[in-house]
Amino acid sequence: MNRCMSRLVLCLLWLFICCGCGDSGDAASGQSAADRYVAGLEKSTQNGHFRVQLIRSTPEPAYVGLYTWTLKVLDRSGASVNAAVIEAEPIMIAHGHGTMPQFTTAVEAGTGMGEYRLQDLDLFMPGTWTVFLTIETLDGVIDTVEFAFDLEG
Ligand SMILES: [Cu+2]
């Protein structure tokens, strides 16, 4: 239905990245876009609304396959963010493709601690995967963050 649209978005994203920083995977610069995984790896979202912790990745990011991620979302003051809608979109930027299905919606863990689970992210190729997360709270605050891992690199 909206397959063409998602293709278009992927293409535009790819063009944007290519124009922005030249060849991807530029080893000479020593500047890798990939994160180094540790359990609890924390990032702030783009506009600073949330802190997102990758509590656990099963398996640890290293090989291709199906991944389950447990996330924890906190607000600026460090309070748990519950009942948010979180969507993940894994993309291989250098290759200009994503996964099937394109999006994975996180399921709230039900702990009341701002924990969510992403099930079966299909990171099916060696290389760098960037997982874009969009977080939307009940009261309509939206922000994004990304985690990137180089598999079998
Ligand atoms: Cu690929």
Walkthrough of the structure:
The protein has one helix and ten strands. The chain has 153 residues and is mostly beta strands. The longest helix has 19 residues. About 16% of the residues have low confidence.
List keywords for this structure.
binds copper (II) ion, five-stranded antiparallel sheet, 153 residues, Immunoglobulin-like, globular, 44% strand, mainly beta
Mind describing the biggest β-sheet?
5 strands, antiparallel
Separation of termini? 35 Å
By DSSP (H or I, 4+ residues per run), the number of helices equals 1
Beta-strand content: 35-45%
How many domains in all?
A: 1
Shape: globular
| Largest sheet: spatial strand order | 1-2-3-8-7
CATH topology: Immunoglobulin-like
What is the C-level CATH assignment?
A: Mainly Beta
Low-confidence stretches: 7-31
C-alpha-based Rg, rounded: 15 Å
Give the name of the CATH architecture: Sandwich
The counted number of beta strands is 10
The helix content, as a percent range, equals 10-25%
Structural class: mainly beta
Order of helices and strands: HEEEEEEEEEE
Average the pLDDT over all residues and give the rounded result.
Answer: 86
How would you concisely characterize the structure shown here?
The protein has about 150 residues and is mostly beta strands. The chain is built from one helix and ten strands, in the order H-E-E-E-E-E-E-E-E-E-E. Helix content is about 10%, strand content about 45%.
